[in-house]
Amino acid sequence: MVLVVLVVAAVAAADGEAYELRVPASIEVQPGVASTVSLTIAGTGTRTISKDGPVRIELSSPTLKLPRTRYERRHAADPAAETPRFDLRFTAPAAGDHELALELRFWVCGTRTCRPVRATQTIAVQAAAPAPPPDAGVSASP
């Protein structure tokens, strides 16, 4: 019984080190302007992201406009890359704080086997109108 517990603990500890999601925790955008955020899924150490297994990214937000809510490996910048990168598109319709939720499903492979992974990530999006130029509202005197 102790051996089983130790094996499960080792697998759970390795889970956090098998892959890495490269995406900012927060970004600033202008309201009403189409924006993108880059997401890269990478294996760590000797692990890789399966090129044969499905990669699926689901986007959701109660306030952001999302022209696409599902991305698959074929939507990556280079679908054949070992570390697929996605440019996730959205628009903040109004100024304020928003959230972009990501739910990911993909396969991480070791030297002999692959296993499915489900991961979630939330990106804080702040939409602020650009500051007026320093000379705005100032008239030139002759």
Report what the structure shows.
This protein is mainly beta and 142 residues long. It has a single domain, classed as Immunoglobulins (Immunoglobulin-like), CATH 2.60.40.10. The strands form 2 sheets. Strands 2, 4, 5, 6, 8 and 9 form a 6-stranded mixed sheet that branches. The N terminus is likely disordered.
What key attributes describe this structure?
1 helix, 10% helix, 44% strand, 142 residues, 6-stranded mixed beta sheet, Immunoglobulin-like, elongated
Q: Could you give me the name of the CATH homologous superfamily?
A: Immunoglobulins
Q: Any idea of the CATH topology?
A: Immunoglobulin-like
Overall pLDDT:
86
- H/E topology pattern: HEEEEEEEEE
The structure class reads mainly beta
